[in-house]
Every structure is written in C-alpha cells, then in structure tokens.
C-alpha cells in the first residue's frame, strides 16, 4: 500500500515536471505584431532609355497594389526557422567576439608593456574569453531548444508595408539579408528585375524571407511596357496566395478545341492531360485558338479541393468582302500576313479588324467594323478606302523638323523683341522728359530704333502665326497615320455574285470558361 502511494506520487511529479517543461518551452510571441513586407529597387537589363525609370516605378507599383490590409497566419515552420536563425546569429556573433578577444590576447604577447600590466590584461582577457565560451555553449543549447520547441498557435498578423510603403528598401550587395531584415523588423523582402525581350517587358520578382532553409518564391510576368500596371497587379495576386498561406487546389482541364492555348495569369499551360496545382485566390484565365473568338475571364478558386476548368470557345463567324480600287492595286495584309493583291476577295472574321495596304512603299492602315455596316448575306460586299499617296512616316518626320525649327525661331525672336521694346520705351521716355539732348539727330536715332522695333515685332508675330500653322499641318499629317475607315462602296455595292455556303455559318453555343468542383477528386 505504501509502495503504491509512492508510485502514484512519483507518477504525479513526473507528469507535473513534463507539463512544466512543455509550458516553459512554448514560444511566446507578440500577438499584436505585424508581418512587414519591404520592396527594394529592381535591376534592369536591356531596357530602352525611355524606360530606365522602371527600376523604381515597378517596385513602387508593387507597394501600391500590396497595400490591401490583408492578414497572414504565420506557419509553425516559419516560426521555428526564425527562432533557430535568431539563436544561430547570436551564437555566430559570440564566436566573432571571442575571436577578437583571442586576437587581442595574442597581440598582447608582442607588446612592450610592463610584465605586471601585461599579466593583468592577459588575465582579464582570459576571463572574458571564458565568459564568451560559456555564452557560446549556452547559445548552442538555445539552438537545440529551438529545434525541439513547441510553438503556440497565433492569431492572424496584419500584413503591413515597411515605412508605410513610402520608400524602397536598400539592400547592400554583400550584406546578410537575414540580419539586415531582422534589424529593420522586416518579415519578407521583394526584389527582382525588369528585362527587355524582343521589345516586350519581362518582370521577375522574388519573395525572400531571409531565413536559411526557407524557399525563395519566384514570380514572373510579361507584357507591353504600357501594360505595366496590369502585369504588376497580376503578380501581386500570385504573391498574396503565398503570403496568406492559401490552400492548394487541383485544377483539371476540359478544353474545346483541343488545340487551344490557355493562359493562367499570363502563363501558358502546355499540357492539358494532367492537372496542375494552384492556390486559392483570383486568377485571370485566357484562351485562344485560330478561327475561334478569344476569351478572358477572372475566376476565384476557393472552398474546393479540386476544379474542372471547362473552356468552350466560340467559332468565329466569317464573312467575305472584296476590294476593287480603280485608282490603285495595293497588296493587302491581314494579321501581319500577306493575304491578296487588290482587286480580290478576302474572308475575315465578323468582328472589328485592322488591315494594311501597301503599294510602292506607301502604307495605309484601315479599320473595318462590321457592326456599323449592313452586309448582304447573298453577295460579296465591295469595299473602298482612301489610300495615302505619300509615305506618312517620312512626311510626319519632315513636318516635325519644320515645326521644331519654327518653334526655335520664335523662341529666339521673342526675347529680343521684348528687350528692344523695353529699350525703346526707355529712350522715348528719356527724350520726352529732357534726360536726352532735345536735338534733331537724337530724334532721328530714336525714330530709327522705333522702326527697328516695329519690324522685329512684326517678324515675331509672323513667326508665331507660322508656328501655329505648322502645328496644324503636323496634326493633320499625324492624323493620316491613324487607321482609316473601310466603308462599303454604295455606288458599286456588289463585288461579285457569290453564294455563301450555309455550312460556313456557325451557330455555336456561347463561349464558356467555367469552373466546376471535380466530383471524382477525394
């Protein structure tokens, strides 16, 4: 009975001890602390001179689109890795301090000080070295504790921008990113590059938490330079799926036609035969195929383990039009490819289209909007367009130079005229007030000065009028560079009697880019 009581007491004390150790080893965190993101200046490669400023414009746009007030639940793995990194950095700092003390003690042997003083200094340095070694040993224990520590669940942290997003973070090339971010209380840093590839902008961004062993996430986007905001916004959506630790979703594909190209946030999906893994969030889906209407749609993936992305593109409705320009026989290009030599018939999609006409090196662009015109379904509509007679590019460039020279002449003449006007006014006032000799020769001199003023003033006015005339001419010529409207030839509406094959008229169902929960996915 007595033995049983002692056993129960021993078990109770053991359980109490382990509970105490468990509670002691819990990671106490500031639940109100924020998860701070900084963005650094991007590198540039091969950008045109007019876009060199994108090295700061692009990261500043990241700051704008990331200021959303979102929250993040910090995963246990990140907490653990941060704690281990902090303990390891502390140990490394102590090792460096001990190395400096050892170096100072070694240098003491070569000094020419009194032996008694040297012995005292050596004793003091040895004591400090022993203290550092003890601290290093304790730091090593701290690392082992952090490796086995239990972390408590924390509330979602507010995702905030470093310095309220008002400035970019500057990271030294040789600096330790983990230590640098720790000093500024930064949880993650976004850095990257902007490159030019065949005239298109390619942005690559990295999300780096500065923690050894933690994955550095890479994101990319491409597009025209003018579409930089859309590209950055799309990349920020991708970044937030990682930051917010959204769940992974398996996405299957059901695509029609089979040769269609599907893009998710601008990235081409190369293989539809197997599913891909995405994270919950918003995505921009795009699909295109030859002879089909291109479609885009914004989808949100959430609350499902799997989706089937159904894409059913609508067949383009086509129509035949003819060109028979009596005064010219240019080559016709459609979608940057040679189509016909006019006169001739071309079959195009029944939608807004851009054409290029070329004859003897002179180019004319035309736009056709079928919805603004009524076409006969039984005949081929004859179309007309007014072609340029001169090379528009050369004409605009010549007129631009004339305009600049006219403006330069006005800039030279205007200040001279104003200075001369002021001088003439002073001379006339001085002559009338008796400050100048009241003689005929003086009056003749002032009259000549007034005549010169009138001539120069008239010249300045003429230069001003000339500048505005040249500006109007420049705008007129620049307007010729815009696509001209292609209109039906109402005088001769029918190009040729051609019966349209009814089989070419397609009545597909509306285009659908849908997402459905995959019922077979468990």
UniProtKB/TrEMBL annotation:
The keyword Transmembrane helix applies. The chain crosses the membrane at residues 455-476. Keywords: Membrane, Transmembrane, Transmembrane helix. It comes from the Bacteria. This is PEGA domain-containing protein. It comes from Treponema denticola SP33.
């Amino acid at each position: 009975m007595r033995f049983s009581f002692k056993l129960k007491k021993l078990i109770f004390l053991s359980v109490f001890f382990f509970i105490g150790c468990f509670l002691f080893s819990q990671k106490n965190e500031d639940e109100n602390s924020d998860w701070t993101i900084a963005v650094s200046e991007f590198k540039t490669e091969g950008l045109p001179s007019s876009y060199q400023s994108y090295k700061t414009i692009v990261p500043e746009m990241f700051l704008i689109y990331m200021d959303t007030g979102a929250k993040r639940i910090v995963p246990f793995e990140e907490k653990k890795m941060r704690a281990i990194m902090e303990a390891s950095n502390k140990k490394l700092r102590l090792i460096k301090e001990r190395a400096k003390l050892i170096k100072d003690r070694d240098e003491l042997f070569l000094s020419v000080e009194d032996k008694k003083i040297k012995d005292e200094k050596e004793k003091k340095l040895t004591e400090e070295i022993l203290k550092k070694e003890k601290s290093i040993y304790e730091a090593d224990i701290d690392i082992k504790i952090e490796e086995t520590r239990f972390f408590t669940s924390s509330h979602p942290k507010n995702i905030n921008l470093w310095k309220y997003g008002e400035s970019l973070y500057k990271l030294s090339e040789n600096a330790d990113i983990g230590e640098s971010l720790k000093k500024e209380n930064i949880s993650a840093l976004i850095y990257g590059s902007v490159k030019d590839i065949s005239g298109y902008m390619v942005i690559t961004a990295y999300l780096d938490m500065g923690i050894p062993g933690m994955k550095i996430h890479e994101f990319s986007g491409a597009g025209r330079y003018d579409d930089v905001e859309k590209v950055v916004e799309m990349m920020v959506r991708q970044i937030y799926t990682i930051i917010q630790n959204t769940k992974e979703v398996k996405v299957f594909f059901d695509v029609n036609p089979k040769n269609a190209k599907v893009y998710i946030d601008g990235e081409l999906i190369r293989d539809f035969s197997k599913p891909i893994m995405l994270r919950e969030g918003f995505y921009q889906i795009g699909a295109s195929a030859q002879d089909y209407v291109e479609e885009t749609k914004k989808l949100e993936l959430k609350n499902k383990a799997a989706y089937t992305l159904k894409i059913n593109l609508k067949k383009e409705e086509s129509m035949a039009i003819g060109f028979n320009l009596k005064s010219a026989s240019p080559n016709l290009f459609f979608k940057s490819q040679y189509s016909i030599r006019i006169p001739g018939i071309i079959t195009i999609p029944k939608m807004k289209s851009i054409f290029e006409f070329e004859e003897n090196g002179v180019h004319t662009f035309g736009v056709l909007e079928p919805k603004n015109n009524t076409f006969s379904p039984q005949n081929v509509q004859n179309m007309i367009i007014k072609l340029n007679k001169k090379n528009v590019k050369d004409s605009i460039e010549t007129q631009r130079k004339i305009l600049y020279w006219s403006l330069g002449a006005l800039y030279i003449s205007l200040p001279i005229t104003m200075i001369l006007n002021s001088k003439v006014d002073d001379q006339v006032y001085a002559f009338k007030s008796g400050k100048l000799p009241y003689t005929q020769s003086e009056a003749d001199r002032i009259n000549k000065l007034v005549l010169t003023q009138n001539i120069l003033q008239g010249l300045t006015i003429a230069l001003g009028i000339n500048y505005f005339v040249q500006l109007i001419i420049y705008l007129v010529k620049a307007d010729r560079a815009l696509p001209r409207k292609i209109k039906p030839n109402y005088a001769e509406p029918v190009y040729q009697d051609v019966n349209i094959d009814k089989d070419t008229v397609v009545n597909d169902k509306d285009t659908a880019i849908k997402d459905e929960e995959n019922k077979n996915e468990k």
